[in-house]
Design goal:
42% strand, four-stranded antiparallel beta sheet, mainly beta, disulfide bond, 4 domains, 286 residues, Complement Module, domain 1, signal
Length: 286
């Protein structure tokens, strides 16, 4: 806001009555179009008509800045104001991708009853809930491949192609889990020609098979799973096994580090097994 607080001299009446053009030039003070901050600014003008006497005009500009309260960007959004928070400034709000604006997109700093306020309350950004709807022009998906040690069931009776939006579920046989997910089942959805997530699903064993036994020896394991008949020869993850030799045989000292193996499904931590060699006894003749 600009207010003239002092006015010492204006254009002489004799010059104002003339129909000839009046020349005006600023001899001191801010030039037209200059943005000036709050404060007092003396202005001096030179006024004349053709070759007549030059008159001076002096006055003071009292610049008063009226402001609204500070503006902050909404969560998950941004705001841009034309002149900050001063009178007449316009602020435009926007939201990040995946969010929608609740409220007015633009507000203006205005004066109401000698008080400065924004034209409306600040808007907020709300996350847009994701809803998948099959597209009319979307592409079908190829039939997902059935994993070994598992099966796949789909809601569409497609032969080699499945329409967009089809859902398939993978199941692993008992004793197997889906690789990386460590669950027994997983869902995939056909979206515009691609299965999401990836349809390359593999079922991995959660048990180790029977460890090999050394010749002239045996193996004993703890934590053996005998809950189901089909798993009697399977060993749970973490199972430890120890090798021992038959009577008259012994594991050589150089191979004693192979005496124990542990199941890290679906494999044992060491595929090597120790040897059982005949124990020789020395008899002394007397």
């Amino acid at each position: 806001m600009i207010r003239v607080s002092q006015h010492y001299f204006c254009i002489p009446e004799c010059l104002a009555r003339q129909r000839r053009p009046i020349n005006v030039a600023i001899t001191a003070g801010p030039r037209p179009g200059t943005r000036i901050p709050r404060g007092n600014y003396p202005i001096e003008l030179a006024v004349w008509v053709a070759d007549q006497h030059v008159h001076s005009c002096q006055y003071t500009l009292d610049v008063i800045v009226k402001k609204c309260k500070d503006v902050f960007p909404p969560s998950d959004g941004s705001v841009h104001c034309s002149y900050g928070t001063i009178w007449g400034s316009k602020c435009n709000f926007s939201c990040s991708a995946g969010y929608e604006l609740l409220g007015h997109h633009s507000i203006i700093c205005e004066e109401h009853s000698n008080e400065m306020s924004w034209s409306s309350s600040f808007p907020k950004c709300k996350k847009i809930p994701y809803k998948y709807s099959p597209s009319v022009k979307s592409l079908p998906c190829l039939k997902p491949q059935q994993p070994s040690d598992g099966t796949v069931v789909c809601d569409s009776n497609g032969q080699s192609m499945y329409p967009d939006g089809s859902v398939c579920q993978f199941f692993c046989y008992p004793g197997f889990l889906i690789e990386n997910l460590l669950t027994s089942n997983a869902l995939i959805v056909c979206k515009n020609g691609q299965w999401t997530p990836n349809s390359n699903v593999q079922c991995i064993a959660t048990y180790c098979s029977d460890p090999r036994q050394p010749e002239y020896g045996s193996v004993r394991c703890n934590n053996k799973d005998v809950k189901e008949a089909s798993f009697k020869s399977k060993y749970k993850n973490g199972t430890s096994c120890h090798f021992q030799c038959d009577t008259g045989y012994v594991i050589p000292k150089s191979q004693r580090h192979l005496n124990k193996i542990t199941c890290y499904a679906p494999h044992w931590n060491d595929s090597s097994i120790p040897e059982c060699k005949r124990r020789f006894s020395v008899k002394y003749l007397t």
